Amino acid sequence: MTTSFNFKRDVLPHAIAVLVFLILTAVYFSPVLFQDKGLAQHDILQFKGGAKEIQDYRERTGEEALWTNSMFGGMPAYLIQTHFPGDWSGYIHKVLTFDLPALAGNIFITLICAYILLVAMGMSTWLAIIGAVAFSFTSYNLIILEAGHNTKSLTIAYIPMVLAGLIYALRKNLWIGAALFAVGLTMNLHFNHLQMTYYMLLLVLVFAVVEIIYAFKNGTFAELLKHGVVLLVAAILAVGVNFGRLYTTAEYSEFSIRGKSELTQPNSGNDVGSGLDREYAFNWSYGVSETMTLLIPDFYGGSSSAPLDTDSETYNAFLKMGAAPAQAEQLVKQGLPMYWGPQPMTSGPVYVGAIVVFLFVLGLFIVDRRWTSWLVAGTILSIVLAWGKNFEAFNYFMFDHFPLYNKFRAVSSALVIAQITIPFLAILALWKLINERSQIKDLDKKLLISGGITAGICLLVWLFAGTASFMSETDQRLIQAQFPIDAIRADRESMMRSDAFRSFAFIVLAAALLYFYVKNKLSANVAIAGVGILVLVDLWAVDQRYLNNGDFERQVEANFFQPTPADQMILQDTQDKERGLSYRVINLPNPFNDARTSYFHKSVGGYHGAKLRRYQDLIDRHISQNNLEVLRMLNTRYAITGDQKQPVQRIPDALGNAWFVEEVQPVQSPDEELNALTMFDAGSTAVVDVNKFPIERRYFSTDSANIKLVEYEPNYLKYEYHAAKEGLVVFSEIYYPEGWQAYLDGEPVDHFRANYVLRAMEVPAGKHTIEFKFAPQSYYTGNTVSLISSILLLLVVVGAIFYGVKKKPVEETIVEKV
């Protein structure tokens, strides 16, 4: 019998939850919402610099450039900023977040998706709110926002919605669950942080293995298979909506540092093979003992740049060294390297909450094995993956053999799985304790054991913290800079002890509330409210260490992109300005970790995690070694020096946008091609891999030959040239085979690669026009598939909800009730 609609039951609780989430978001991000302030997010500011040319072109023409010359001499725009009009999922995100500003919208949607998961499980509104808070205010979620990893944050945010659809489809209603799964996966893929999606898929794989085992055990495999087919169709639809983004990314990845190297010899110590260099990928590996930060946030000192108070040992040490009180305070407030763990540096620990860990341990004793099996397995997998090179036997095997795993770096971020599984099992334990208090044997003992284990660990850390070294590999630099290292070590010890006792206290308080509830001394509402408040206070206070109101400021972008004297000097050069300032600039102080330069100039450097592999080879072998001929061939006219007296230097004899050469230097392999750039004259010679691009002539005439760029757009270049004889032109443009087409007087012609990264073309004598147009078929095909899939998704979701509401829910045989 269908239950009639009841507003008070069916709508009001969820409206209250949304209101609570809006209030939490508004309070935390009040500077953004009410004071017109922003956050100086490093990666976002770098993104805006790298995307400036793309955005300007879009605003001016209403079209997508798909290529930009603003970073690394030129690269596809797919992984910087490309719009796919056929993909409608962006509208879904705007609706779900009420189009809140970034940062606020990120946390709000994390709360909403976590809430959806827990409501799909059948939890009450207030339990689901507590669980959503536990999911969303894990320290890592705020730390990555401070760093500017917004797309990573949003990809993580939608993981609970994917799990909600998956579980609901198996547990209660296949059609509504499948629709929810399709929407969640669509949104997860929309933000294109494939590493986070990969971790989610690993968790889903663990879940699937457990479900298959139980299905065989219970004789329900055929039913599970039917549900799996429907979910697979939903997944295909989600991939279809994002097909344009995924297709172009996959195409580009083959040419990026995530793809297979063409070199047979190591380049600057890097391994040769498919995917990232192993050392690079595992550079950020969580320490084995560092896993304690899940329970005790400052177990390893917190951040690599943490402020201290005036009651700290380091402050007093500066006073003893002769510093004035104001100077000593400034030194400790500006941030000191309190982190002493094994990572090169960190913005803060992954802290899921002392109470959450305590409830997770309780869940091991009271939650059904079918749930603990995959949640514990997922947690262990997450932690082991995050250990990276600190558990190399397993992780190196994964890197070398598991599909696509070698495409990702910073393996410490695998803890995103744990920051989902630990709160999930924790809230399941709280739910079970509240609802089945009388049915759980020895519940009081299990509660005390769980509290004793977690609080006991904290107490032991508090008692024996002094046995640790509190020294890091980077402390030698502090000693050389005459910092009071003994005082810093004392403050690190104090931070560990303080947080250990803090976690101990939160666990004891939460355990006491639940113990009194088990003993009928407190009502369920009081116990739930008390635990919820403690969880919020615990996580909120730690989050404030890494992202608080003091971090927000006005006119962030205007201040960051204020032209420097060096920028102004370069911009005064009006030569070629009408053709788009077509020369390049290198920012010598930090060329390959800086996209601010790209906001004003076409840069030899940039900031991106997926550069073209050949360009990275060029950086490693030649640009970093100040090979002037390579800088000349990249048409590098200016160097920003960082010197106040002479902020800009003119690089002599930059070769321009294109030039005729006299001879071809044939080589037989990519290795030879790269090596040949060590000693060659870029103005007269073109180095060509003749095995890849057969070219018969070796010598060309340059008499009376000239060529110039007459029109410039990011995706369109037009040259005019005159030559008395047939010639060979080298273009100071990056060779990329998937999308660039050359035309001679309007007719398609071939071009080839020269000098390892540039374009070249044999041209006939006379006066002619050459054009290059970037029109990759992958973008247009992908966008068409995305449009069709977006329409289908809308129809399927509406139809699935309509059919699912009409259809009687299935019996809970596929997934047991918790």
Strand order of the largest sheet: 12-13-19-15-16
Shape, principal axes of CA atoms: globular
β-strand number: 19
Q: Low-confidence segments, ≥5 residues, pLDDT <50?
A: 268-272, 811-818
Question: Helix amount, in percent?
Answer: 40-55%
Class by helix and strand content?
alpha+beta
Task: Examine the coordinates and then state which fold CATH places here, giving the name of the CATH topology of the domain at 658-777.
Answer: Immunoglobulin-like
The span between the termini is 24 Å
Nearest-angstrom radius of gyration?
30 Å
CATH class of the domain at 658-777: Mainly Beta
User: How would a textbook summarize the main sheet?
Assistant: 5 strands, antiparallel
Protein name: Bacterial membrane protein YfhO
Pfam family, one: YfhO
Transmembrane segments: 12-29, 100-119, 126-145, 151-169, 197-216, 228-247, 348-367, 374-391, 411-434, 446-465, 500-518, 525-542, 785-805
Keywords: Membrane, Transmembrane, Transmembrane helix
What is the compact description of this entry?
With 818 residues, this protein is α+β, with helices and mostly antiparallel strands.
Describe this structure as you would to a colleague.
The strands form six sheets. This protein has a five-stranded antiparallel β-sheet, with no helix packed on it. Strands 6-5-7-8 form a four-stranded mixed β-sheet. Strands 9-14-18-17 form a four-stranded antiparallel β-sheet, with no helix packed on it. Among the domains are: 563-650, no CATH class; 658-777, Immunoglobulin-like, CATH 2.60.40. It contains 32 helices and 19 strands. By secondary structure, the chain is an alpha+beta fold.
